[in-house]
Amino acid sequence: MLVPYPLKLDAKGKLAPLDRAYVFSPFDGHVKSFTVAKNSEVAPGGPIAVLHRQEWYKDIKDLMTKRDNLTASIDLLSKNPEGLPPTERDQREQQRSSQIIERRGILERLQAYDSEYHCDLNHPGDFFVLAPDARPSAVGGPPRWRVVTQDFETKLGNTVRPTDPLLRVGNVTGGWEIVLKIPQKHSAQVFKAFKEAAETDEGGKFLWVDVLPISAPTPANRGMGKLYFKDVTATAEPNRDDQNESDPVLMAYVRINTPDIPKQYHIDEAVLVTDAEVHTKIIGGDHSSGYSLFYGVWEFLYEKVYFYLF
After folding, report:
1. The whole model's pTM is what?
2. Could you tell me which of 44, 10, 16, 1 has the C-alpha nearest to residue 190?
């Protein structure tokens, strides 16, 4: 009872790059192909996929036909046969000027398909879906995105809408975070710890979190991260535990491997895989060692035994 010891609260989470984004098609379209592979890298604004839109195919083909016909007509009108009367020459020149203006409008419309909608005019109806333009942070390498979705190729041949994500990209050199699910039963202790034991840096109040990847649960791969108060939701969300029983959770985000965390607390990059599961312990304030070490037992006995008997 007299020996203080920090209370550590268990929670599970999954790894994700700190900089990440879903890629959506800006328009309805049929997925023809992907220009990236699993775990490949792409520059910001680079092509991700090729989609086909039938409405654009018809419009572009019509515009190209009109362009080609006008070009042929302009070339013909540019060749004034010998001996034409001045009046007829003037008429041909007026007709030629009118067609040049009309062709210019068609070329501008085709150019808009290229520049605004990223269409491939060599294949009418096809357009490119691009990676996010935002430059991800470049802590350990160039600012490039990496494809972190593993099953995106199943969308080949499907028709997608702007609300349907094609895949997800992340910057694996710019720091990582854990998408954490804190059991509701720990919520009071977590918020109490923020009041009594939190540290503060430029990001605000935070608690240290022990992290152990399930894929390599060895002392060498143990690390630490920061759980900021601003990154903890205040609403419990439905969830199922390992026994498929209802166990509401608070969603939170723990930052790891960022420059502000000492190197000795970083986790080996070889085990950092998107959506890989990790075990964590949120480090709260000091309590009596008996309570801290047997916290789960005390909570279980009170909730399941004492509360019902008394």
Report:
1. 0.71
2. 10
Q: In residues, how long is the chain?
A: 310
Helices within the chain (DSSP H only): 54-77, 86-115, 187-196, 289-293, 295-301, 307-309
Q: For the chain, what are the domain ranges?
A: 4-18+170-309, 54-124
Question: Which CATH architecture describes the domain 4-18+170-309?
Answer: Beta Barrel (2.40)
Contact indicator for 267, 213 with CB cutoff of 8 Å: yes
Task: Read off the pLDDT band of 307 (50, 70, 90).
Answer: very low
Radius of gyration of the chain (CA): 31
Residue 302's pLDDT is: 47
Give me the residues paired with residue 125 across strands: none
On the question of pLDDT at 296 being above 60, the answer is no
- 3-state secondary structure at position 155: helix
- Residue 128 DSSP class: E
Compute CA 166 distance to the chain's CA centroid, rounded to the nearest angstrom.
10
Question: What SS3 state is found at 90?
Answer: helix
